[in-house]
Each structure stands twice: as C-alpha cells, then as structure tokens.
Amino acid sequence: MALISHPVPAVLVEAFAAGPMQGNGAAVVLLEQPASATWMQALAASFKQSETAFLLALADGTWALRWFTPSCEVPLCGHATLAATLALGHWGRLQAGQTLELRSRSGGLPVSLLAGEAPQAASLVLPSGPLRAAPTPSYLEPLLGCRLEGYWSSGLGYRVALLPDHWPLASLGPIAQALQADDRGGLVLMQAWSEGEQLRVLDQCPDYQLRFFAPDLGIEEDPVTGSAHALVAPWWMLRLNRPKVVGWQPSGRRGGMICESPAPGFVRLTGTGHLLWDGHLNAGGMELDPQGWSGLATC
Fold first, then answer.
1. CB 203 within 8 A of CB 252
2. Active-site residues: which are they?
3. What pLDDT does residue 279 have?
4. Quick one: pLDDT at residue 199?
5. What is the DSSP letter of 122?
6. Is the dihedral of CA 168, 252, 17, 222 positive or negative?
7. Is-contact 134 152, C-beta < 8 A?
8. Per-domain residue ranges for the chain?
9. Secondary structure of 223-264 as H, E, C letters
10. Low pLDDT (below 70) residues in the chain
11. Residue 42: in which H helix or E strand, if any?
C-alpha cells in the first residue's frame, strides 16, 4: 500500500448538543484519498471518541462515510453522521438547505443542513427496524433493581429494555461492565418522559428518554446515540400515536433530537451541534486502500 504524509483536515463536533461540553463528541476527518482501515482505526483509538467519522469525496461527485470506535469499525452511527454533516457545512462542502446522500455500509444516508438555525442544525435519515420481543435475561432485573415492562432484540444487534415511567434512569450509575451476553453489544434502556425538569430540543419537549451502553464496542456509555433513537422512535410514535416524537438522553453529556418517519423502515433525526475544535492532523504514514471503500452503497 502507498504511504501518504500531509496534514489532514479534522474537526471535533459535539453532536445533538445546543452548546459546548454537551452531547456526543465525534471527530470528523476529511480524506483526499481512500485511507486504510488500519490507519483509520489507529487514529480513532488516538481520538478516544465514541466514534470517529471519515469522509471521502468520490470520483462521481458523491461522498463516502465510514465510522470507527476506539476498537472497531461499526456499520452505522447516527451522532457521527450528524457531526459529519455539520463538518461538511463548516468546510463549505454543503450549503444550508442542500441535501446530499452519504454512501455507507448501511446504504445511502440522506443528510441536510437546516437554514436559519442557531446553533447550526442538521437532519439525517437512518434505517430503522422492528423490535422483536425476547426473553428478559435473568440477571438484568436484579442488576437494575426494577421489573422491566418489555425487552426486545433487533436487527441492528441492540437489545432494548423498557423501564417503568418514574424509575430514576438519569441517576443510574455505571453498569457497562456488569452487562452479560448479547446486552454487551448494545443495550438501550428507555422510558416515557416524566414531567419535571423543563427541557427543550429545538424548542420542543421530550416524549421519551434513553441511555445506551455497549462495552463490546469499546463504549462504556454513549452520551447521545442516534442509531438507538432511530431504532426505538417508531415504537414511541406508535405508542403515543404521533407522527413525530422527541427523544432525550440524560447521560453525563446529555442531548436530544426530533424523530420522524419519512418512509417505512427509516427515521429522520434532527438536532443541533457545536464545533469544539478545528484544525489539521499530522498523523503521517497514511496507508491507501481503495478496495476497502468499494463496498459502500447508496439507497
């Protein structure tokens, strides 16, 4: 593989956040050439963000997008896609009101910048899928100290547990290392929003909240998880009989998003983000691997 050494543009965006030190941080790297997975994985491990997004402009004028946690490549990441969209706007590659499709291992992901929002807002469309009722693992209710109202598996690989409405989800301590079996690949704990603290997402009140843990992906707790909201938002739309719901994530770096369904099997997420830093990487030694980018698809 050829080696390339030159400064590479990069930013860190706090996604689904209204201001600094909130939401879910994602590094976004703008590639001029198709970097190897080994190089991107090493860079993601250095960033130590829950995900690092890599953008590559393709010869046909479209864009390709890949995501890496500190330990592995993942097929889908919502907050890093929002971060990538805001980064494209910051670099002048996407204009407010413009929509484009990012090619990924999960198909084409339509994204757009919203005009007239402060802070900057963007939307993205992610694939969703049905929740499938599954037996509750025997260890989980004793771990949480409550009776679950539902437990599901999903095609995304995440497990989903429904908690009682007034159970103190926001104050739940670290549980990632206590998770077992399939829950370690991604566990969503969700409940209906309870009236109390007056919170707003783009001036709208939350309808539900969740927290997300995925130790087998190298993520003790993900602060604000777009893919998890895309998975469970259709369930809340059906339960509340609404075409649009607002999700909230009461993690240590909390944030939220507006969720609606533009078509069956898809969810549009809209949220804001904050550009924390902007610069260039001097990582050096970039290996090129065009073949590694050849499997990315459109819708």
1. no
2. 51
3. 94
4. 83
5. E
6. negative
7. yes
8. 3-126+274-293, 131-268
9. CCCHHHHHHHHHHHHHHHCCCEEEEEECCCCCEEEEEEEEEC
10. 1-5, 117-118, 195-197, 297-299
11. helix 37-47
pLDDT at position 250: 94
For tokens 């399939």, the residue is 182
Pick the CATH number of 3-126+274-293 from 3.90.1150.10, 3.40.50.2300, 1.10.510.10, 3.10.310.10: 3.10.310.10
Query: What's the Cα-to-Cα distance from 84 to each of 30, 197, 203, 245, rounded to whole Å?
Result: 9, 31, 23, 24
For residue 211, give Cα distances in angstroms to 57, 135, 137, 198, 227.
34, 20, 18, 19, 12
Model pLDDT, residue 297: 58
Q: Which amino acid is at 276?
A: L
Summarised one tens digit per residue, pLDDT across range 4-31 is 567 899 999 999 997 789 999 999 999 9
What are 249's two structure tokens? Answer: 């994530």
What CATH code is assigned to 131-268? 3.10.310.10
- Per-residue pLDDT, 286: 84
Spell out the alpha helix ranges (H) of 173-213: none
The token pair at 159 is: 């497990």
Encode pLDDT of 252-279 as tens digits.
Answer: 999 999 999 999 999 999 999 999 999 9
Alpha helix stretches (DSSP H) within 54-96: 78-90
Phi-psi region of 203 (alpha: psi -120 to 50; beta: other; left: phi over 0): left
**Pair of tokens at residue 9:** 């543009």
Give the residue from 39, 19, 20, 21 showing the smallest Cα distance to 29: 39
CA distance 69 to 194: 32
- Six-digit token string for 257: 């998003």
**Residue 279 CA, distance from chain mean position:** 23
Burial class (CB in 10 A: 0-12, 13-18, 19+), 184: middle
Phi, psi of 178 (to 5 degrees): -90, -10
